[in-house]
Task: inverse folding
């Protein structure tokens, strides 16, 4: 089922959707281990109801489908219709998998309050939200009490030099000044130390954990990495789009030149560090007690969900 919503800014991903599809195998290889840890942190059981936010082309959704099995239910959302169409193609149902639903929706305006998901997943999407607290509040309201949020975002620029250099080079050739690497909605926006944990707490979550994950990008040559960015790196594509073809070409070559230092005897290995961000929707009274004490919850009380008044505002028809 496809539910049309009113997406907010989709961050120009129309240009990058085809590139993500073309590089699907490379992306899956790059993020394989991190994705397994992402799903482990979500504690997804067979038969679970799971929300995949900013699902992109649906690569990690394939793994979610395996986790929930035929008795489960998966809602696939993305702010960009082109990306969601690719996810639908990736997840072609054979009649034996879980129930699949598709929704064009910005993470900051999901409109799924009271849906009582067992888990919500977001792989490399939350950092594009210009209002990340609003997105986390939306996710919090869509989970059942005891439900888990698990997300991957990029850490800061010091541990992601390839991203930092490509963005800086693009801005240089576009005649733009250096930008704050932690600016809301940017690739590294949630990499500021302590920010992700604070936002989760402000959104009402408990059992908050933020864990760094080493995820090097391994390809034969620096040119191959830049080719990936050139076709799938929406933020960089957007910066260079107004330039003449000749100046764009010089910018891409300058990126290659700057990244050759990461060549190794076994190929090119670009340093990348992600943050695995996980948390639980806890009872309101427990969260209030945690806020007063200033300490995180050691254990969420998922068995006490019936004591919290349910929120039926979403009224998700057709499930």
Result:
């Amino acid at each position: 089922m496809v539910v049309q919503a009113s997406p907010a800014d989709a961050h120009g991903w129309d240009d990058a959707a085809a590139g993500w599809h073309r590089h699907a195998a490379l992306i899956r290889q790059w993020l394989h281990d991190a994705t397994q840890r992402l799903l482990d942190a979500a504690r997804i059981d067979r038969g679970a109801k799971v929300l995949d936010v900013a699902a992109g082309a649906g690569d990690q959704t394939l793994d979610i489908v395996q986790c929930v099995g035929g008795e489960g239910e998966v809602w696939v959302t993305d702010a960009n219709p082109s990306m969601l169409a690719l996810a639908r193609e990736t997840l072609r149902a054979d009649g034996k998998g879980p129930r699949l639903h598709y929704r064009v929706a910005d993470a900051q305006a999901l409109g799924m309050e009271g849906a009582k998901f067992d888990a919500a997943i977001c792989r490399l999407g939350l950092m594009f939200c210009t209002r990340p607290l609003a997105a986390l509040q939306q996710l919090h309201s869509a989970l059942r009490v005891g439900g888990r949020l698990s997300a991957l975002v990029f850490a800061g620029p010091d541990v992601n030099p390839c991203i930092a250099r490509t963005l800086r080079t693009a801005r240089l050739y576009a005649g733009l000044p250096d930008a704050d690497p932690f600016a809301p909605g940017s690739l590294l926006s949630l990499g500021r130390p302590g920010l992700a944990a604070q936002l989760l707490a402000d959104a009402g979550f408990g059992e908050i954990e933020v864990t760094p994950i080493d995820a090097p990008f391994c390809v034969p040559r620096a040119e191959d990495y830049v080719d990936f960015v050139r076709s799938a790196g929406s933020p960089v594509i957007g910066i260079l789009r107004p330039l003449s073809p000749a100046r764009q070409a010089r910018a891409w070559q300058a990126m290659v030149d700057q990244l050759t230092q990461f060549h190794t005897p076994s190929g090119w290995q670009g340093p990348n560090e992600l943050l695995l961000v996980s948390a639980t929707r806890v009872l309101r009274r427990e969260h209030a007690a945690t806020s007063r004490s200033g300490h995180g919850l050691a254990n969420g009380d998922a068995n006490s969900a019936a004591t919290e008044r349910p929120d039926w505002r979403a009224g998700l028809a057709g499930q």
The first strand starts at residue 2 and ends at 4. The CA atoms of residues 45 and 183 lie 36 Å apart.
